Amino acid sequence: MGHRIFLAGASGAIGRRLVPQLVAAGHGVTATTRQAAKAEDIRALGADPVVVDVFDANGLRAAVLAAKPEIIIHQLTDLPAGLDPSRMAEAIARNARIRDEGTRNLVEAAKAAGAKRLIAQSIAWAYAPGPEPHCETDPLDSGAEGGRAVSVGGVIALEKHVLGASPIAGIVLRYGHLYGPGTGAAAAADPAVHVDAAANAALLAVERGTRGAFNVAEPNGHITTDKAVAELGWRAGFRLAE
Fold first, then answer.
1. How many C-beta neighbours within 10 Å does residue 186 have?
2. Whole-number Å distance between alpha carbons of 5 and 3
3. Strand ranges of the sheet holding 28-33, from the earlier edge strand across to the other edge
4. What DSSP string runs through 171-239?
5. Is pLDDT above 60 for 104?
6. Which residues lie below 8 Å from residue 242, measured CB to CB, with a gap of 6+?
7. Cα–Cα distance between 92 and 126 in angstroms, integer?
8. How many whole angstroms separate alpha carbon 34 and alpha carbon 94?
9. Looking at residue 19, what DSSP letter applies?
10. What pLDDT, on a 0 to 100 scale, did the predictor assign at position 170?
11. Of the four listed, 68, 129, 139, 215, which is most buried by Cβ atoms within 10 Å?
12. Which of 88-92, 159-163, 210-214, 224-228 has the lowest mean pLDDT?
């Protein structure tokens, strides 16, 4: 039986690969974008588009209430195409703001709408230095410096908002570096994950995920993904049929 799902960030790399998977699984999807020009692309994928900015708390709340979702999926980012190095410094700050303020707004909207589950995108390379491979209970790098401090600080804030959103069951997917369609990369450094497999982890979390964090990446020496494989039934080799 399908669920009513509110997907924040449908026009991003993961969002574009996730909408078709959610629709094919029988879920009803309301999906957001900040750009009206992208609304028809979302509709073509089978979702009902909503143009809203996550920093507009009142507008976001109204959109979520109207959608009446059982489950909210947070795939919002603000990164330049191809992760353009010349634009990454300012993008890191914008992304950190989304992870903190944007996530807080989304959690409040989810609570107002009575959502039961919130699944959010995080990253798998924010762990503090220590023995590898890292598992989900290892500490994040709160002592980071420079640009990494900004990025990790945003991640820590996001995870705190999501995992502390009781009575909503908060689920955090700590993705490896993305590659594949829409990412601008044909391969990525470890820990890495194909965008289709990353999106599939969110689909699996809709039905199977329990409150907590899950590392989502291809086999590597930096993090262990045993939890995602065992509890979500996730497979690193998953690909959408083109």
1. 8
2. 6
3. 48-51, 28-33, 4-8, 71-74, 117-123, 169-175, 212-216
4. EEEEE-EEEBTTTTBSS-PSSEEEHHHHHHHHHHHHHH--SEEEEE-SS-SSB--HHIIIII---TT--
5. yes
6. none
7. 14
8. 14
9. H
10. 98
11. 215
12. 88-92
What is the average pLDDT across 213-240? 98
* Distance separating alpha carbons of residues 154 and 104, to the nearest angstrom: 11
pLDDT digit string (tens) for 132-178?
999 999 999 999 999 899 999 999 999 999 999 999 999 999 999 99
Helix (H) / strand (E) element for 40: namely helix 39-44
pLDDT value, residue 93: 86
Contacts of 179 (CB under 8 A, 6+ apart): 185, 186, 187, 188, 192, 193, 194, 195
Taking alpha carbons only, the member of 102, 169, 202 closest to residue 214 is 202
Q: Which helix (H) or strand (E) holds 33?
A: strand 28-33
The pLDDT of residue 241: 87
- Residue 141: both structure tokens together: 């790098």
* Band (87; pLDDT cuts 50, 70, 90): low
CA distance 15 to 224: 24
Q: What angle do CA 84, 151, 133 make, to 5 degrees?
A: 100
48 three-class SS = strand
